[in-house]
């Protein structure tokens, strides 16, 4: 029986100029281009985004860049997993044509002086605990969207506030890119996939599913007619009792992330962030 053909390796571009030269050739052919921005350490959640991009476009670009500007001085920039060789193998198996893998000097050359500052969906939640975060995210995503000018860009809903920020960014700057959000990919036991799950010890990994379970139970209580804040307070207490250090567990307007003014008639999203040992987990579900 003949062996299966080996997937072609994606072209790896280290500079914006090289990437744009490849993209120009595709555009001359009238091809539809998708971008999947990542920080690498790819897991099944990322690969699900790539598959969705493949279904929606003729050519797929995946960016791999651990963005220093979205990490605070005491965060895990230095230890964040970097697995480019295995990432490239996974992307080759999915038929990705191009990888954009710049270094920090390419993205932020000497004298770089421009950032994108946002309010709206960038206010509160993550910003209350990581005030630098969305300026870093908005700046790097803006740079990636401008570098690629894709027809679509695909993001996961696991980072729900980030998805709302990126949608607002693209809308406000009139960027010609459709922002596509896909449902969170989870392990069989409910834990949302994340590159940072690799930090969890075996016991912490067992306990980590508690955050998804507590969110489901809290959402069910609210859907059943429970008062919102007491239900959330009970959920926070359950996470505390399980050994989590809770940053937030809240219910917000799913479209604006503003606090609810008419909970019964607004689209609702429950969002959570909590520490388990040295690992910070985030999650969200529709309510």
Number of helices: 10
CATH topology of the largest domain: Rossmann fold
Approximately what portion of the residues adopt beta-strand conformation?
A: 15-25%
Helix coverage percent of residues? 25-40%
Number of domains: 2
Shape: globular
Largest sheet: 6 strands, parallel
Q: Could you give the order of the helices and strands?
A: EHEHEHEHHHEHEHHHEEE
**Oligomerization category of the chains in this entry:** single chain
Mean pLDDT: 96
Terminal CA distance: 51 Å
Q: Which second-level CATH architecture of the largest domain applies? A: 3-Layer(aba) Sandwich
CATH classification class of the largest domain: Alpha Beta
Question: Which terms would index this structure?
Answer:
single chain; 287 residues; Rossmann fold; Pantoate--beta-alanine Ligase, Chain: A,domain 2; alpha/beta; 2 domains
């Amino acid at each position: 029986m003949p062996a299966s053909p080996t997937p072609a390796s994606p072209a790896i571009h280290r500079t914006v100029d090289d990437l744009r030269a490849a993209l120009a050739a595709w555009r001359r052919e009238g091809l539809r281009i998708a971008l999947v921005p990542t920080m690498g350490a790819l897991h099944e959640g990322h690969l699900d985004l790539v598959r969705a991009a493949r279904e929606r476009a003729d050519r797929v670009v995946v960016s791999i860049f651990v963005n220093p500007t979205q990490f605070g001085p005491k965060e895990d920039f230095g230890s964040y997993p970097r697995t480019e060789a295995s990432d490239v193998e996974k992307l080759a198996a999915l038929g990705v044509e191009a990888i954009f893998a710049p270094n920090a000097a390419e993205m932020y050359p000497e004298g770089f002086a421009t950032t994108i500052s946002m309010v709206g969906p960038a206010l509160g939640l993550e910003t209350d605990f990581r005030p630098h975060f969305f300026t870093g995210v908005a700046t790097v995503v803006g740079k990636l969207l401008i570098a690629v000018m894709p027809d679509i860009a695909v993001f996961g809903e696991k980072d729900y506030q980030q998805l709302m920020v990126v949608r607002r960014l693209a809308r406000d700057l009139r960027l010609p890119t459709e922002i596509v959000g896909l449902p969170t990919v989870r392990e069989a036991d409910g834990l949302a996939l994340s590159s940072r799950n690799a930090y969890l010890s075996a016991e912490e990994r067992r306990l980590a599913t508690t955050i998804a379970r507590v969110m489901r139970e809290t959402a069910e209580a609210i859907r059943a007619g429970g008062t919102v804040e007491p239900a959330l307070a009970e959920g926070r207490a359950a996470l505390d009792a399980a050994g989590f250090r809770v940053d937030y567990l809240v219910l917000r307007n799913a479209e604006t992330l503003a606090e609810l003014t008419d909970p019964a008639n607004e689209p609702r999203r429950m969002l959570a962030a909590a520490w388990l040992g040295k690992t910070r987990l985030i999650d969200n579900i529709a309510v």
